[in-house]
Amino acid sequence: MMVGISALQELGSETVAQLAVVGGAFSFALAGVFGRRFQRMGLNPIMTATGQLTASTVLFVPITFLFGGPWVIAEPTLGSMASLVGLALLSTAIAYIVYFRLLASAGAVNMLLVTLLLPATAILLGVTFLDEMLTPRHIGGMGLIALGLAAMDGRPVRYCRAVLATRTR
Predict the structure, then answer these.
(1) Is the pTM of this model over 0.85?
(2) Given this model, what pLDDT does residue 18 score?
(3) What is the enclosing helix (H) or strand (E) of 157?
(4) Are 89 and 152 in the same domain?
(5) Are residues 54 and 101 in the same domain?
(6) In Å, how far from its chain's centre is CA 98?
(7) Range of the domain at 167
(8) Which of 25, 32, 78, 166 has the most CB atoms at less than 10 Å from its CB?
(9) Could you tell me if 4 and 137 are in contact, meaning their C-beta atoms sit under 8 angstroms apart?
């Protein structure tokens, strides 16, 4: 609902980007499944995060050389190297460690509930910082997400049943 039916009518650059977001969400779901599996094996969250980052690095190095090796890029500046280290340590390594620790304490289902909040957060950040338009379909999509979260939580249903039970007495 948030993306809109028009995205399904024709493949273009926007559709590819939207499919990439869906692929990211799917990958996030797989991470929860694999993370739970590693937790049952008794692996330390730091070991799991290190293994995942090492494996992804090994997989992406050949792809990097395929699409542009060090011989085609400009020599990195101190600022660009500092940015790379910051992204690697703060946005990736520490984030994975926190993710796997939370996975161990909260469980996979609770961790994956966060994925339902990502589209709404992205839209609200776009409206706030990028002057994007908030349309009725965005609000409708956020409403559907809120209903889904409420249904999964179960408290609104229990409350309605309790209210109905007191009225019938």
Answers:
(1) no
(2) 74
(3) helix 155-167
(4) no
(5) yes
(6) 14
(7) 115-169
(8) 32
(9) yes
